[in-house]
C-alpha cells in the first residue's frame, strides 16, 4: 500500500486550536453527498465560493478530515496572493505523487516511471512555462494519469484552497485534471472568493466551463444565521447554555454573519469579559479587521477616502442623495468615490433600492470609523445632523438625529441630543421595542447636564429594561438613583428596584431596605399615589423575605388606601403587589378565595383602564389557583390572558409564565414530547429574561418527564446510592433513589430529611414538591412511621392539587396521596380520598393524574381485597391509560396480574434493586457517553448534550471502543444493549 495514502492531515487541521464549527448543515450535506458519489467511482468536484472569511477553508478542512477517517487519501494544495508559482495549487499534491512514482510505490499504467517522474518534475519545479502547447498537453496528461493511478487503491480527496489566486496555467491544469478523471473515486474540493476585489475573471470563466460537466457542483457560502452564532457562543464561551441568543443577535448584526469577523470579534470580546463586554459603550473593530480594511484603502485617493469616511458616519445604510448634500465636492467625484468603495468590497448596492448603498459588515464600517481622526468624526456627525434636520419626511429621522446629535455633544448640541434621544426612546417603547428604548433613555441620561433630569431618564430607562427582561440592569439603574436622587426620586427608585427583583425571587431584603428607607424620607400622605405604591411594593418585598404576616398587613393597608384614593392605576399596582406574595404553605387551609377575588378585581381594573401591564399578574395568579382548585376552564382563560398581556405589552415575562402553564397542561395530558420541547423553550426564555434560576426548574421538569416514561433507566449505572446528600438537593436525590429502587439509600436519606427541621422546606416555594417526594418515598418503603409523620402536612392541602413553583411540577390531587398514606396506615377513609382525587382529575381533564389515581386506588383494593370487582375495573381503566400514554411508572403500581414485565420501578416498585455493574471498566462519564452512542448520537451531538468539547467526546468514544473491544460505534451500541446499559 503506498505510504502517501497514510500521510497525516496538515497540522493546522488537527488539534483543538480551531474555533467552534457551526452551521453549514446544507453545505456539509452537499459535500457528504459528493463524497458518497465519489467513493462509488464517479469523480466529483465541489467549488466552494464566498466572501473572504465566510468559512470556505474551514468547511473543506472539516469535510476532508471526516473523509480521511472514512479511509480517503487526502492531498492538500493552496495558492498564495503574491509570488505564486505556476501550477501552484497542485504543486504539493503532485510532489507527493511524484515521490511515490519515483520510489515505485505508485505505478502509472502504460507509462515509463522515469519519464513520468520527469514530466511531473517540470510542473513541480515551477521553472517556467512548458515548451509549447502540445508538450504542455502531454505533461498535463501525465499528471491526470498519475492521479488516476492514485485512485486505484481507494478514494482520493484533493483539497485546493484559494483558487481565485491561481494563474492561467494553473487553471488550465486544474481543468484538464477534472476533464480527464470522470470515472475514478476522486473528490476535488476547491475554495475561491466570489466577491470584489478578489473575484477572479479567469476563475469565473473556468468555473463556467467546468460547470457543464457531470459531477461538478458549486456551493456558495452565505452568512451564518443568528442560531448559528448562538451555537458558536455556547461552544466557544463554555457558558451554561442558553443565554447566548440575545448576545448572538448583537454579534450577528456586527459581524454580518461572517465567520471570520465573528471569530475575531469574539476573540477581542473574550479579552474584555466575553459576552458582558457587549454591554460596554463603544463598539470597536478588532485589530485584524481594522488592518484588513486599512490594507484595502492603501493607495486610495484622499478625496475618495473622504467619501467613504462620511458614508461610515452616516450609518450602515447610506443614501447617495444624503452624501451628495453632506460632502463638499462635485457630484461626479463623490460618485467616483462610492464606486471605488464598492470595488473594494466595503460598500454594496441594496437590491431593489435605488440610490441606497450599505456596508456588508458592521465591523468593516466600524474599522473605517476607527481609522478616522476623532475630530473629523465629530464634525461629520454635526454636518450630517444639520442636513437631516433640514429634511422633512426622511425615514427614521428622529432616531438618526438622536444618534448624530448625541455623537457631537462636544460641540454644544446637548439639548438637541437629549430631546431626540428621549423622543426616539418613547417611539421605541410604543413599538414594544423595550431594549432599544432602554438604551436610548440611558444614553440621554448620560449626556444630560442636570442631575434631576438625568436621574429621571435613568428611572425611565430602568422601567424599559424591566419590560425587556433585563432585571439586572433595571436594578442597577434604580440602585444608582436610590443613592443619588432627590427624596421622591429615591422612593421611585426603590419601587422600581423591587419590581425588578421580585420576578427573579432575589434581592428581596435589599428591596425591603430601600423601600423602608425611602418611606422614612417622605411624608406619609395617604393621598400620595407614590406613597401608596411604595407601601404595596414593601408588602410584596416583605412577603419574599418570609415575613408573611407583616407582608399581608402592609399589603392589605395599601389596597385599602388605593381604593380610597380612587386612582385605578394605583389600585392596580397595589393589587398586583399583594397577589405576588409567595403563598404560605398553609394558604390552602386558610382559604385562597379572597386572593382569587383580588385577582379578578385586578383583571377588571386592567380592562377598565386599558393598561394590560396589570393583566399579567392577575392572569398568573388565576392560573396557579385554577390548577390548585381544579378549575380547567379557569386555567385555560388565565393562560390566554397571559399571552394577551405578552403580545400587547411586549413583556416576555408573561410569555414565559404562559409557557409554564402550557407545560403543565401538556404534562397532565400525557403529551410528553411537546412538554419536553416547551421545557427547553422555557430554559431559553429564562436565560434571555435574565432569570438566573432557570436550570433548576428545567432539571425538575426533565426528571418528572423521564420518570413517567421510564427514561431514568439510562442513568441507573450512574447512581450508586453513596452520593453525598449535602452536595445535592436532598428531596430530589431521595426521589431518584425511590424511582430506581435503591431501598437502603432511600431509607437512610428519608430518615435524615425527616429528622431535620421541615420548616425550612415549608418556607420555600418548593414545599409541595418536597412533600410529594417525601410521601412517595415513605409509600415505596412502606415506612408507616414516616407516612404518619407526613400526613398532617398533606391534610393541609386536602381537596387541592399539589403545584410546585410556577408550574415547575404538577403532582395532581393531594387526596390521592392521602388515600395511599391512609391505605398504608390502615385507616378507614382511603376509598373516599381516592374518589375525591379521581373527581378532581376528571374535572381537570388530566388523564395522567387520572391514571395515577386509578392505579393507586386499584393497588389499595388489591392489598386489602375489599372489592375485587372495583379493583378489576379500576385496573383495566388505568392499564388502558398507561398503554395509550406510555406511563411506564404508573403501570408499575398496578397489581401484578396486569403484568409488570418490561416496566421500570415506580412508586410501588420492588425495593432494593441492586445497582447495575459497570462492565469493561467504563467510568461514569463513559457510561453516559455510551448511552448516547447507543441512541445514534454523533460526537458533536454528544458534546452539545453533555456540555463538553467535541474533542473530549471523541476521546471518550475512543476509550469506550478500546475498553469494550468494539470495532465501531454500531458494535458499541450493541454491547450497551447486551449489557443492559440502555433500554
TrEMBL record:
N-terminal signal peptide: none
The keyword Transport appears for this protein: no
Keywords, comma-separated and alphabetical: ATP-binding, Nucleotide-binding
GO BP of this protein: regulation of DNA-templated transcription
SUPFAM superfamilies from the UniProt entry: C-terminal effector domain of the bipartite response regulators, P-loop containing nucleoside triphosphate hydrolases
InterPro entries: AAA_16, P-loop_NTPase, Sig_transdc_resp-reg_C-effctor, Tscrpt_reg_LuxR_C, WH-like_DNA-bd_sf
GO cellular component terms, semicolon-separated: cytoplasm
Protein name: AAA family ATPase
Amino acid at each position: 500500500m503506498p505510504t502517501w495514502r497514510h500521510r497525516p492531515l496538515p497540522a493546522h487541521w488537527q488539534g483543538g486550536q480551531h474555533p467552534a464549527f457551526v452551521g453549514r448543515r446544507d453545505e456539509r450535506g452537499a459535500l457528504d453527498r459528493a463524497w458518497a458519489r465519489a467513493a462509488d467511482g464517479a469523480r466529483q468536484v465541489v467549488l466552494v465560493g464566498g466572501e473572504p472569511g465566510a468559512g470556505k477553508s474551514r468547511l473543506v478542512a472539516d469535510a476532508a478530515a471526516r473523509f480521511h477517517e472514512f479511509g480517503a487519501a487526502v492531498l492538500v494544495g493552496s495558492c498564495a496572493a503574491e509570488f505564486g508559482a505556476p501550477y501552484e495549487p497542485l504543486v504539493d499534491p503532485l510532489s507527493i505523487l511524484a515521490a511515490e512514482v519515483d520510489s515505485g510505490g505508485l505505478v502509472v499504467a502504460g507509462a515509463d516511471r522515469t519519464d513520468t517522474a520527469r514530466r511531473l518534475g517540470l510542473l513541480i519545479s515551477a521553472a517556467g512555462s512548458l515548451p509549447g502547447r502540445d508538450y504542455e498537453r502531454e505533461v498535463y496528461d501525465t499528471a491526470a494519469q498519475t492521479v488516476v493511478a492514485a485512485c486505484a487503491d481507494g478514494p482520493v480527496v484533493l483539497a485546493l484552497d484559494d483558487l481565485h489566486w491561481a494563474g492561467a496555467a494553473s487553471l488550465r491544469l486544474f481543468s484538464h485534471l477534472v476533464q480527464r478523471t470522470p470515472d475514478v473515486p476522486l473528490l476535488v474540493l476547491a475554495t475561491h472568493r466570489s466577491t470584489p476585489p478578489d473575484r477572479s475573471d479567469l476563475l469565473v470563466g473556468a468555473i463556467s466551463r467546468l460547470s457543464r460537466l457531470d459531477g461538478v457542483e458549486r456551493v456558495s457560502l452565505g452568512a451564518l444565521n443568528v442560531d448559528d452564532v448562538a451555537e458558536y457562543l455556547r461552544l466557544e464561551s463554555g457558558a451554561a447554555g442558553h443565554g447566548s441568543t440575545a448576545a448572538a443577535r448583537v454579534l450577528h448584526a456586527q459581524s454580518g454573519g461572517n465567520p471570520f469577523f465573528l471569530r475575531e470579534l469574539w476573540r477581542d470580546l473574550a479579552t474584555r469579559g466575553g459576552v458582558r463586554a457587549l454591554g460596554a459603550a463603544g463598539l470597536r473593530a478588532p485589530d485584524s479587521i481594522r488592518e484588513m480594511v486599512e490594507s484595502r484603502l492603501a493607495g486610495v485617493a484622499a478625496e475618495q477616502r473622504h467619501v467613504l469616511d462620511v458614508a461610515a458616519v452616516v450609518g450602515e445604510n447610506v443614501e447617495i442623495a444624503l452624501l451628495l448634500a453632506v460632502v463638499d465636492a462635485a457630484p461626479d467625484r463623490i460618485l467616483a468615490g462610492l464606486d471605488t468603495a464598492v470595488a473594494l468590497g466595503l460598500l454594496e448596492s441594496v437590491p431593489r433600492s435605488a440610490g441606497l448603498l450599505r456596508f456588508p459588515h458592521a465591523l468593516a464600517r466600524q474599522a473605517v470609523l476607527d481609522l478616522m481622526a476623532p475630530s473629523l468624526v465629530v464634525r461629520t456627525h454635526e454636518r450630517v445632523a444639520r442636513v437631516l434636520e433640514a429634511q422633512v419626511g426622511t425615514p427614521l429621522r428622529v432616531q438618526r438625529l438622536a444618534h448624530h446629535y448625541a455623537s457631537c455633544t462636544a460641540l454644544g448640541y446637548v439639548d438637541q441630543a437629549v430631546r431626540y434621544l428621549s423622543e426616539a426612546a418613547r417611539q421605541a417603547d410604543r413599538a414594544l421595542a423595550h431594549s432599544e428604548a432602554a438604551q436610548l433613555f440611558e444614553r440621554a441620561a448620560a449626556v444630560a447636564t442636570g442631575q434631576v433630569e438625568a436621574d429621571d431618564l435613568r428611572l425611565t430607562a430602568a422601567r424599559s429594561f424591566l419590560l425587556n427582561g433585563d432585571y439586572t440592569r433595571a436594578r442597577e439603574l434604580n440602585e444608582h438613583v436610590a443613592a443619588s436622587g432627590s427624596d421622591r426620586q429615591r422612593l421611585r427608585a426603590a419601587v422600581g428596584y423591587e419590581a425588578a427583583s421580585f420576578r427573579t425571587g432575589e434581592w428581596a431584603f435589599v428591596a425591603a431596605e430601600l423601600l423602608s428607607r425611602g418611606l422614612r424620607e417622605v411624608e406619609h400622605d395617604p393621598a400620595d399615589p407614590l406613597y401608596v405604591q411604595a407601601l404595596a411594593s414593601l408588602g410584596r418585598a416583605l412577603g419574599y423575605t418570609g415575613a408573611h404576616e407583616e407582608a399581608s398587613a402592609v399589603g392589605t393597608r395599601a389596597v385599602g388606601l388605593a381604593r380610597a384614593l380612587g386612582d385605578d392605576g394605583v389600585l392596580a399596582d397595589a393589587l398586583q403587589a399583594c397577589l405576588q406574595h409567595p403563598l404560605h404553605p398553609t394558604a390552602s387551609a386558610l382559604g385562597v378565595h379572597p386572593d382569587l377575588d383580588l385577582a379578578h378585581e385586578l383583571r377588571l381594573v386592567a380592562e377598565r383602564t386599558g393598561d394590560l401591564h396589570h393583566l399579567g399578574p392577575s392572569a398568573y395568579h388565576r392560573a396557579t389557583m385554577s390548577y390548585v382548585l381544579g378549575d380547567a376552564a379557569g386555567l385555560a382563560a388565565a393562560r390566554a390572558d397571559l399571552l394577551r398581556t405578552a403580545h400587547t405589552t411586549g413583556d416576555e415575562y408573561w410569555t414565559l409564565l404562559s409557557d409554564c402553564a402550557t407545560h403543565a397542561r401538556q404534562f397532565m395530558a400525557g403529551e410528553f414530547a411537546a412538554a419536553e420541547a416547551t421545557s427547553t423553550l422555557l430554559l431559553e426564555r429564562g436565560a434571555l429574561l435574565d432569570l438566573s434560576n432557570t436550570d433548576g426548574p428545567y432539571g425538575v421538569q426533565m426528571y418528572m418527564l423521564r420518570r413517567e416514561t421510564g427514561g431514568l433507566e439510562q442513568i441507573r449505572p450512574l447512581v450508586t446510592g453513596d452520593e453525598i446528600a449535602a452536595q445535592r438537593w436532598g428531596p430530589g436525590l431521595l426521589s431518584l433513589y425511590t424511582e430506581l429502587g435503591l431501598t437502603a439509600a432511600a431509607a437512610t436519606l428519608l430518615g435524615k430529611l425527616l429528622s431535620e427541621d421541615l420548616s425550612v422546606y415549608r418556607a420555600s416555594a418548593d414545599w409541595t414538591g418536597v412533600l410529594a417526594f417525601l410521601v412517595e418515598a415513605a409509600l415505596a418503603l412502606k415506612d408507616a412511621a414516616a407516612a404518619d409523620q407526613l400526613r398532617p402536612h398533606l391534610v393541609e392541602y386536602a381537596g387541592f392539587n399539589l403545584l410546585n413553583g410556577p408550574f415547575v411540577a404538577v403532582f395532581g390531587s393531594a387526596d390521592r396521596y392521602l388515600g395511599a398514606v391512609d391505605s398504608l396506615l390502615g385507616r378507614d377513609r382511603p376509598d373516599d380520598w381516592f374518589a375525591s382525587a379521581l373527581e378532581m382529575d376528571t374535572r381537570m381533564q388530566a388523564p395522567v393524574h387520572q391514571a395515577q389515581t386509578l392505579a393507586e386506588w386499584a393497588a389499595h383494593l388489591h392489598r386489602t381485597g375489599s372489592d375485587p370487582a372495583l379493583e378489576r375495573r379500576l385496573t383495566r381503566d388505568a392499564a388502558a391509560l398507561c398503554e395509550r400514554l406510555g406511563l411506564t411508572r404508573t403501570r408499575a403500581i398496578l397489581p401484578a396480574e396486569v403484568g409488570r414485565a418490561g416496566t421500570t420501578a415506580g412508586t410501588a416498585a420492588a425495593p432494593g434493586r441492586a445497582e447495575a455493574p459497570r462492565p469493561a471498566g467504563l467510568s461514569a462519564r463513559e457510561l453516559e457517553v455510551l448511552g448516547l452512542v447507543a441512541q445514534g448520537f454523533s460526537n458533536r451531538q454528544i458534546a452539545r448534550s453533555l456540555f463538553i468539547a467535541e474533542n473530549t467526546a471523541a476521546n471518550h468514544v475512543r476509550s469506550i471502543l478500546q475498553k469494550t473491544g468494539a470495532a465501531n460505534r454500531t458494535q458499541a451500541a450493541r454491547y450497551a444493549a447486551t449489557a443492559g446499559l440502555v433500554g
